[in-house]
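In the present case, backbone shapes were mapped to integers, as reproduced here:
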Amino acid sequence: MIRIVIVEDEIVVAHFMSEILKKMGCQVVEVISRFDNAIETISRIRPDILLLDINLGTEATKKAGITIAEALKDQGILTIFVTAYSNDAIIKEAIRQNPENYIIKPFTEETIKISVKLAINKIDQRLEERFAVVLCPEYTFHVKSKYVSSGDDKIFLTATELRALEFLCQRPSGIVSYEELHHFVWDLKPVSATTVRELLSRLRKKIPCLKIQNHSGIGYELLIER
């Protein structure tokens, strides 16, 4: 579940945003209305997305949101400014913080939804990149989405083939015993040695560059090109 912190001094606006986000299936983990300890609190929570008002209600905190974004810029939190400020100077200063979006009040429910969905899509892309295993220059296994790609093409694998590849990728260039592979793929249901060999043979045919080495009497080793 996507975790979101709202920094907003107007209670009605914060509540409206919270209801929208909850309907989207997001978790609003904190609503912050004051600048005091905001940076410390957000750093501790480490949300996925920050909905951040620039002006927190007083002359001293009229650009507090920019200060918060600047302090958190290295933490990987995606920031969406939601503010009444629309003058060029403030917008330019905010844009220097590299936000995901800049929403001008008053806003609609749809505006919030679109901005948050775009941020969520970026998070999903980050996860795909993090959990992608390059089997060889032509083929990549996307562990989170459970598919193999070759360029723009998806390679069809059965559920059993995907489970076997996933387990082998958990220990690249390390030996997986026959018993471990059997347990993970078939949950110890009785299968013959021939069934296992045929499964790995199918993987090699579908992913021609796949290097699965058989260590006789021990198990299998997936060799990943570095």
